[in-house]
Fold this protein.
Amino acid sequence: LIIKYILASRTYLLQKNYSIAYKILDKAERLADEHLLFPMLNEIYHTKIQYAPNYPKIDLESLILKQKENQEKHLLEDRLNIVYAKLKTILNEITYQGKTINIEHILQSTFDEHNIELNESLSFKSLYQIIAIANISALVTTKYFQIEDFVLKSYQILKNKKNTDKQLYYQIHIVYIIANTLFRNKKFKLSLIYIKEMEELMHLKKGMYHKSFILKKTLVEALNLNFSDQQNEAIAIVESALKKKHVDLESQLDLHLSLLMFYFQKEDYSKAKSILSKFYHTDKWYIEKVGIDWVIKKNLAEILLYIELNEDDLFFSRLKSFKRKYTKYLKKIDQFRLLNFINIAEHYYLKPEVASQTQFKEKIETTFKWTSLKDEDIFIISFYAWIKSKIDSKNLYRTTLNLLKPS
């Protein structure tokens, strides 16, 4: 549409119908500016400047200034695109080579190398790209505490900008990542504040992005409620969301897996199994659609569910498959505790009486020994809660919540 406007304006300019031509160019400029299409804007300013001497109503100096500012923004976007590619390469090293790095340090050093500052000159699109990379690295390493300060500070800088609604889609996505990061770091009240902000943003521009983000918002909201001792509310909003048709397959699968977890923690294993039966595709299919982290959590939940249901054949079949497929990967990303957890779960299933033995309890404490629960990922704690509930002969959900209480 913008290209059509530019071409149409040039036809009128050649006919010396400057008034109509510049009105069309103004429309094209508004559209290109809204979507931050810098090359298009450059073409528009170029055309406006070229014919400005023939149309006295035009402020030439103002146009020249606009073009210079646009060219600077375009150069910045190009540099950020290079930064994005470099960070993506580093992320691949984390994912496939098992490297452990400090993502915030890498981000800052990459910015320094390319003379990029986290200031209001960044667009929401650029910041989203950067934060998305940091978020994926945290997903792989489960070290969300390493990116929290960075994403909060970065977003606050851009929120101070004027005209922040120009890239509303990316702004909503950033707020979603912040809410999820805070949830993973067990800051439920603060996460829900950002969920509220996300909801408010979703209603802007006549709710044009509401459908795109409603499932993501529901997911993080439900997870916060579940771990804030509001499990029934969490289940209700997830079940309500899943009754409606959506194109967001990834979020649908996340919601189904979360619902399975809620019912498992509630010790309603028949409903948990009913949800599990909906996952009829292969692991390879799910990895392509939602990633390996989701698949590993789904497999672990499945193994624990078969323990609770005493389904021997399914338990041993899934256990063998899990070890064959994911042992190498978990070792690469330094998740030895999940491998140890699987061995502990198997040991418990074969000999449930060990749960009351001192030696077994000591083994659990050694396996899940951490420096600080504050920095530990919430899902790792949730798996630990299951075996702890067996040792203490206590309710799983209450055990989970007690572990999450500030010490």
